[in-house]
Predict the 3D structure of the following.
Amino acid sequence: MIKSFKPVVAAAALSLAMLSQMAVAAEEQFFPLIDYRVGPYGSNGQAFYGGFIDYLNYVNLKEKGVNGVQMTYEECETEYNNAKGVECYERLKSKAAKSSGPLHTMSTGISYALIDKSAQDKLPLAMMGYGRTDAVDGSVFPYAFPLVTTYQMQASAIVKFIKEKLGGDLTGKKIVYLYHDSAYGKEAIIAMEAEAALNKFTLVQIPVAHPGNEQGAQWLKIRQEKPDFVVFWGWGVMNQTALKAAQKVGFPRDRMIGSWWTGSEEDVVPAGDAAKGYMAATWNVSGKQVPLIADIEKVVYGAGKGNLQDASKIGTVLYNRGVSAAFLSVEAIRKAQDKYGKGKAMTGEQVRWALENLNITDARLKAAGATDLLPEIKTACDNHEGSGKVRIQQWDGAKWVPVSGWIEGNKALIHPLFQASAKQYAKEKGITPRDCAKEK
Amino acid sequence: MLYREAGQFKTTYAADQQLFPIRQDRIGVIALLAVAFLGVPLFASEYWFSAILIPFLIFALAALGLNILTGYAGQLSLGSAAFMAVGAYAAYNFQLRIEGIPLLVSFIFAGLTAAGVGILFGLPSLRIKGFYLAVATLAAQFFIVWCLTKFPWLSNNSSSGVISTQKLIIFGHELTTPVEKYLLVLSIVVVMALAAKNMVRSSTGRAWMAVRDMDVAASVIGIRLMPTKLLAFAVSSFYCGVAGALYAFCYLGSVEPDGFSLEMSFRILFMIIIGGVGSIMGSFLGAAFILLLPIFLDVTLPFLANLFGLPFSSATVSHIQITVFGALIMFFLIVEPHGLARLWQIAKEKLRLWPFPH
């Protein structure tokens, strides 16, 4: 037994030695990927991280890296499990000490568990459309970035869209907030309540217990309430069930607006006919008509280096979201190199500075072929979100069609909520907030 | 030869009643503790502390709690994760709402709160047994998680129900490094494990075992069933509660109710089944097996794949890991249904005769 193990150990040691040598040879920007491809949400992870890795490879192939610095990565499987996520983080941490792109966990639970740790280890933590939303206040959370937009801003933007649809006045109207009864679903309640108080509409909150494959009672209640709109915060199997249930009670789907976790192909296709006309918020469009996505397919998959086993996922909402996450991360590395030295690998601390000083204009998006993949983004110390804009898209039975421009949530209403929450966190944790006026 | 107690004469009651009556065991335990307290902090890396040793100790403690209830008192429970959740949220709330309460005191209160909840959910055990009781304890699993999500007061009105634990301050000193956290967890686990070892051989433990083996016979010889069973629930939940508090404070740093899922309860149950039902040591062996084996496979499989030139993606590795893990569990249960602790016992017996077996 012991004998047969020897060559294995020797080979393992040898390959380890070779790996560590290779890391020293060229300037490389390392991305610790705390991802998931198996488990209950595995298919979501495959599309998202497939897009992420494809973009990194795209930068390597197309531009030979950022100023010659190659993008490298190592994956660690979390199965969407918090404890495993922490284990992965600890495993990849030592490799990320020298150079590190932002962490993307695609899991609110794991992000929460990593917020303190990543700040301690000086590694930037990106939470694009999930995670701890009050990290928008960068004075308390220097290393956490809920980039692009947050649940609360999204809810506010959806209300704004409804207001426009109903002729600019919501007084006396009724909106039902139908949500997944979990941390995720409850996150937006505070924003909906604030909007209801401001716009004087009636808010009816209806929770759906996980997993949400039985919603008869909820939709009966919705029929009784006769709301003008249903704002819908679903997840997984709950989404298609809601659409079918709405059809059953005869509630028009074009008066249902979902969050961005309810607006992917996986959510509407199983509902078939019932999904037609249904609307959902998003901050990235789907489809291959985005030049960058088409180019990735050509360059990366043409070279046989595509990460997706199932290439039909290219251009889905989640794939494009993965590309946009990688795009932002690489943009941050460009920005950091501009300041700290071109052609060098950037440390987590340097990337953090860049994430806080991102300025991605429409011109830049156009140059990269990423128009419509993201809204314009300009971050600052007191605004780690950078945009707060979403678009509303509608399912026409075959594909998602954008039906609005970029809508910004009510920042004046929502951001003070974040600051209050961040302040409470700082007090609980004994953190002295940075003075954002002095940051540059 | 190595492990022979011949010649060790007990001349006092104290010597006869000590926790480890055999000298070799005493030396072994002291050596193990010395390595854990002194050796490990010198050599282990940060990764080992935060990703392996701390969770191992915490889950070993939770498994120990369940083992007291299931292994010693014979009451099957599927609510261990829920009791951990009670401990975690209770410790957080004690820290939050009582000004200046020492951390360790809030851990103890957290354990007591969990014990109270445990007694409540242990009441059905007076009427039902076996699998039916397991189903009744499922209620605890669902009710507690629901309750923590439902009432925002419990998570200090956090919009998402997630709590972020306070700083670890003990005697005015703040624990920040993984080594310090490890030592704190280790100290608590060692004290509680020794206490458990002592408890199961006391009259309480004997009463539990009598109830486990046949409750009618136990009541005939004068053991009152209700207090015995409820005490087992209380002690077990206390252990789980403290484990939950440590899980939140020393390991993850922030927890959400959904994290304490049924799956976690099952994992703890598997730990004692693999490790050995009715064995203190089995709890540790089982926790090590369930927690460390997947990580070990995760690290070695890509190496092997490289070696043979197989195109493994991280998803394939995960799938293989789950398969191998499942196969190994079956293998162990077939080869040794009494768990890893039983293997250790057999080894001891062999050592007693070695090198001159009959």
Notes: The mean pLDDT of chain B is 90. Chain B has 14 helices and four strands.
